[in-house]
Every structure is written in structure tokens, then in C-alpha cells.
Design a protein that fits this description.
Layout (H helix, E strand, L loop, with lengths): L1 E3 L2 H13 L4 E6 L5 H13 L2 E6 L19 H11 L3 E3 L3 H4 L26 H16 L3 E5 L3 H13 L5 E5 L19 H6 L1 H15 L5 H13 L4 E9 L15 E8 L2 E8 L1
Parallel strand pairs: 1-4, 2-3, 2-5, 3-4, 5-6
Antiparallel strand pairs: 7-8, 8-9
């Protein structure tokens, strides 16, 4: 496995692979890899001849008051996992390699999609995501790119960007990977102390409740969401950012849920913001 820190190194490898007629998969990550990332890499290895994993904590998707500096990092561990799972190249650039000092070009979706859910409290987040993913697509030129369904709004936005920008890339969504007790895997889980870790189970319990309600035929967003919120609010350490039902493609709110719609949440457990969701 190769580790590249320069864009030119990645392009050189990709050029040779393409000349050999090989398919290329990309797994974009911000590092501190867990089993959720691992499932993306494993899926990419199965579907593509060569796999690139990017490990880059992208500053443009963090607001000044967010956890950019505190975001967990362990590149040696990440590198070992990538190699174990069969990745061929890890792209681990410095910020200066991805953004020049006078960088002033961004990729942004101007519909209401990025203004819903996480975008309500993180208004610049998806502009940063679209910009860095667009740059990675330009650098790697993948045939397929792999994203987790835990970040459901991000996945929908990337799909929209690929269509709008005419990228010839297949976007592959991969299922949420959970701990044995149900908590969705997240790099931010490391922020939780023992008491908060137990409290965080209110998210997956709310997902379970929502699934049971929709499976039982309930379609009223108001009824589904009110019961899910009540469950979360019964946990003293939990503070709801949002619990909403939206169209699975447009991300716009829905009053009656149907197959393919998304029920998503962001909840603070102490100071740590966690997300979870399910598709109806």
C-alpha cells in the first residue's frame, strides 16, 4: 500500500491504473477510522480493482466554534487499518496541499437541501463538504465513491452534486454500522465518558421506536416524531438539535412519511453532537 501526501503522487498512480484498464474506487474520510469506515473500504475493495482512501480533516466544513482542532486523529492506526482491509493508496495531504492561501472557489448547492437538518445549525458545513469532495473527485477520478448512510444528508447532497456537475461517478451508499448495543459508530463517540456513552443509546432507541411505528403503518410525521422526541428527552444528558422527517431525495420536510423518506436526528450528549437516522 502506498501513502501519498501530494496531489501529483495520486495523479501519477491513477494515470498508471487507468492505462492498465483498472477501475478505481474512492473512500473519502476524515480519519480516526472505525468499523463504519472499514465497511466502506471493504465494499470498495470488493467492487473495484484499486481503492484510494483519503484521510483529511477538512477545515472548510467546520465553523469557528466547532471541533476542528479537537477532532480525533491517529494516522498510524488509520494507515494500518487501510492496509489490512486491502486499500491500495492512502491520500493524506496537508491543508496547504488541498487549499492555497488565497483559495476562494467553493462548490455549493443553492437549493434548500443543505439548509435542512444539519444545515440549520451548521450553515457552511455542506459547502465545505461539496468543495472538498469535488476536489477529491478531480484528483482521484474514481469510477465509484463510497459514503456511509449514517451521514444521510451528506449522501443525498453528494448524489445531487454528482448529477448537477455531470461527474461520471457512481455513488455507493453503505449501511450504518452499529455497536453491539445499537449506538451508531462515529469518530466522535470517543468524546463520550462512560455516563454519556450510556446516555447516547437514546438515539438508537429512538430509531428503533420510529422503525416500529412506521412498520406498524403509522405515517403521520407529527405522531412519529413526537414519540421519538419524548424518548430522547427522557434522557437527562440529551439535548435535541433536531428530529425531523424529510423526503429522502430533496431533504424537504414531509407531513406524511412514505417509503424512501428519511427520519433523522442530531442530539447533543453533553457537549458531543451525535447523529442517527433510518429510511422508511
Amino acid at each position: 500500500m502506498t501513502v501519498a501526501t501530494k496531489i501529483s503522487e495520486v495523479r501519477s498512480a491513477i494515470k498508471q491504473w487507468k492505462a492498465d484498464g483498472l477501475t478505481v474506487g474512492l473512500v473519502p474520510t476524515m480519519g480516526y477510522l472505525h468499523e463504519g469506515h472499514g465497511s466502506l473500504i471493504s465494499t470498495a475493495v470488493k467492487q473495484c480493482d484499486r481503492v484510494v482512501v483519503s484521510v483529511f480533516v477538512n477545515p472548510t466544513q467546520f465553523a469557528p466554534n466547532e471541533d476542528l482542532e479537537a477532532y480525533p486523529r491517529d494516522f498510524e492506526r488509520d494507515k494500518a487499518l487501510c492496509e489490512k482491509l486491502g486499500a491500495d493508496l492512502v491520500f493524506h495531504p496537508e491543508v496547504s496541499e488541498m487549499y492555497t492561501e488565497d483559495a476562494s472557489t467553493y462548490v455549493e448547492i443553492l437549493s434548500d437541501m443543505p439548509k435542512q437538518l444539519c444545515g440549520k445549525t451548521r450553515p457552511i458545513h455542506f459547502r465545505g463538504v461539496c468543495t472538498v469532495v469535488s476536489k477529491l473527485f478531480n484528483i482521484v477520478q474514481p469510477d465509484k465513491a463510497f459514503f456511509g448512510e449514517k451521514d444521510a444528508q451528506q449522501l443525498a447532497i453528494i448524489r445531487k452534486m454528482v448529477i448537477d456537475m455531470s461527474y461520471g461517478i457512481e455513488i455507493v451508499g453503505c449501511p450504518i454500522i452499529r455497536e453491539a448495543d445499537g449506538l451508531a459508530k462515529s469518530s466522535r463517540n470517543t468524546y463520550l465518558n462512560a455516563e454519556e456513552r450510556r446516555a447516547a443509546l437514546c438515539l438508537s432507541k429512538a430509531v428503533k421506536l420510529g422503525r416500529e411505528l412506521t412498520a406498524g403503518g403509522e405515517t403521520s410525521s407529527e405522531i412519529i416524531l413526537s414519540q421519538m422526541k419524548a424518548l430522547i428527552e427522557s434522557e437527562p444528558l440529551a439535548r435535541i438539535d433536531y428530529v425531523e422527517a424529510v423526503d429522502g431525495i430533496t431533504m424537504n420536510p414531509v407531513e406524511q412519511v412514505k417509503s424512501g423518506d428519511l427520519i433523522a436526528m442530531a442530539v447533543y450528549i453533553g457537549k458531543t453532537r451525535l447523529i442517527d437516522n433510518f429510511t422508511v
